[in-house]
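Ticket #4471: structure export looks truncated?
Reporter: QA, pipeline team
Priority: medium

Steps to reproduce: submit the single chain below to the structure queue and open the exported record.
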Amino acid sequence: MAKVRAFGLNGLELWFNTNDHLEPHFHVSPTSDDWEFRVFFLEAETLMFEAKRPKNAKLSGRIRRQLAQNSSANRQELLDQWNEVVPEEHKYPRKGR
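Actual output as written to the record:
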C-alpha cells in the first residue's frame, strides 16, 4: 500500500494498492473504515467512482466534489505515482497502446 502523495483530504485515507490492476485508480475510505471506493482518476467525474465496500455505498456530494476536483487537478502526479507502485504489466499506458 502506498499513500497518495498528490493531495490529502481531512478524515479520509487515500492509497494505491501496490499490486493493483488496470485501469489506474486509487482507493479512499474514511478513517472510521465504514466504506471504500475506487477513484478512477483518468475518467470524467460521472465515471470516476466505484463503491468497493459495501457495494451500495454512497459518497456525500461534498466528498465526491473534493475528490473529483483534486483528482482532476493532479492527474499527472497521480498517474506518475500509479506507474511507480504497480507491477510492470499494469503500468499505464500499456505497451502497444
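Status: closed, not a bug. The export was complete when the record was re-opened. Leaving a note from the reviewer for reference: The CA atoms of residues 25 and 40 lie 4 Å apart.
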